[in-house]
Amino acid sequence: MGLIKFTAMPSEEARAFRAGAKDAYGNAPERRVSDGAGIPCRHCLRGVEAGRPYLTLAYRPFPEPQPYAETGPIFLCADECARAPDSDVMPDLFRARPDWLLRGYGHDDRIVYGTGAVTPKKDICTRAHALLQRDDIAYLHLRSAQYNCYQVRIERA
């Protein structure tokens, strides 16, 4: 394991949503069928294959609501899937797009100002490592540069 690790949505959360738990806005996850294009599951960190069911839900990847606890749409395989293992290697899912938004959060789960930047995929691991060297940063989010949707958490290994 290297100096950073990409960490997928916890299995307990994925199971709860699949069982009908309400999302961050108090709604039941919406069930749809994938066309095979651009449906990244935040649990297995793979695209949902064409013809397979998936869930769309509002997700808040923070322990509690607060002003910096961003909420946004995510996709999740509707059927049970294996959680992506923690890894120091960027998951293949994120290699398709040229740029991502990388942002640091403090131990209080607030954005650390000055850390957010649209980052070329080739620089994600290097920038993540540099940001996680700072004492004021507890973890990072990799988000869509186009839509700001949460993708995966990056932590110290």
UniProtKB/TrEMBL annotation:
UniProt superkingdom: Bacteria
InterPro entries: DUF1203
Pfam families the record matches: DUF1203 (PF06718)
Protein name listed in UniProt: DUF1203 domain-containing protein
